[in-house]
Amino acid sequence: MSEEQASSSPAGSQQQTPTKKSGPNSLEKREQRREDRTKNTLIWRELAIIAALCLVILAFNLSWGNPESGDDMAAEARDEIRLRDVRPTPPEPEPPEPEPEPEPQPEPKVQKNQQRQEVPDEQVQEEPETSAEPVDIQDLNTDVGQTSSEPAPQTNSNPSPNPSPPKNKVFKKGTADQNAQMQGRLDPEYPKEARRANIQGQVILQFIVDESGRPQDIQVLRSPHDALAEAAVAALEEKKFTPARQNGETVKMRMSQPVTFRLN
């Protein structure tokens, strides 16, 4: 009995208290949990690093945004100190201006008894020169207290009413008894080169009409082109004038003549 009980007791004990065995699923779960904890730790570390970097960048931006604030304040303080310390020097007084010297008063002009009356040039007629007989100094008696026995020559106090005009005198237009007049019409030939170039205008000529009525000393006072001036001078040289007269005699007269060139 005892042996059977002894043999049966271990078997019964084995049936009553079975042992727990760990399977593969529990190991995988543990490993998964461990990996999850590691991942979470890494994630938190990365977040902490990112937050620290953000704070560093933010602080750097704030300090970079006003890099010269301290320098500006120091410069302003220095400027204020300079402005307060430096005082402008008073300007030197200007020397007094010298008093102007009194202007000398002009002396009154003595009016002559005889005043010359001014007459326009066109109305002035030059008086003919009267030739007086020369006096021979040897005929005079230089002895004191003696007079010459010869009678003094009688001078003609009444000049001739129409004295002859002086020779080679050139009268202006309107100053002689009769002005010089052109015979016919002045019709110059239009230069071909001026016509091709469409040049037109007025030429002013000045000349002297001599006693025979011929134009002399022709001068061009104004001309738009040399070709027009040459044509006007050539046409004037071929013209004949009625000479001017003074006291019934022919005289020289200075005249001016405009010559117009116009394209039709």
Provide a descriptive summary of the structure in words.
The protein has 264 residues and is of the alpha+beta class. It has a domain at 170-261: TonB (TolA/TonB C-terminal domain, 2-Layer Sandwich), CATH 3.30.2420.10. 34% of the residues lie in helices and 15% in strands. The protein has 5 helices and 7 strands. The protein has helices spanning 2-16, 24-65, 69-85, 192-196, 226-237, and strands at residues 170-172, 181-182, 201-209, 215-222, 241-242, 244-246, 249-261. Strands 1, 3, 4, 6 and 7 form a 5-stranded mixed β-sheet that branches. The termini are far apart. The relative contact order is 0.09. Residues 1-21 and 110-149 have low confidence and may be disordered.
Helix-strand blueprint:
Elements: H1 2-16, H2 24-65, H3 69-85, E1 170-172, E2 181-182, H4 192-196, E3 201-209, E4 215-222, H5 226-237, E5 241-242, E6 244-246, E7 249-261
Parallel strand pairs: 1-7
Antiparallel strand pairs: 2-5, 3-4, 3-7, 6-7
Short description:
The chain is 34% helix and 15% strand. The chain has helices at 2-16, 24-65, 69-85, 192-196, 226-237, and strands at 170-172, 181-182, 201-209, 215-222, 241-242, 244-246, 249-261. The longest helix has 42 residues, at 24-65.
- The low-confidence runs, each spanning 5 or more residues with pLDDT under 50, are 1-21, 110-149
**Major sheet:** 5 strands, mixed
Query: Could you name the CATH class of the domain at 170-261?
Result: Alpha Beta
Specify the overall morphology: elongated
User: What's the count of strands?
Assistant: 7
Strand content of the residues, in percent?
Answer: 15-25%
CATH second-level architecture of the domain at 170-261: 2-Layer Sandwich
The proportion of residues forming helix, as a percent range, comes to 25-40%
Briefly note the CATH topology name of the domain at 170-261.
TolA/TonB C-terminal domain
Q: Quaternary state, please?
A: single chain
**Elements, N to C (H/E):** HHHEEHEEHEEE
Number of helical runs?
A: 5
The CATH homologous superfamily of the domain at 170-261 corresponds to TonB
Nearest-integer average pLDDT: 72
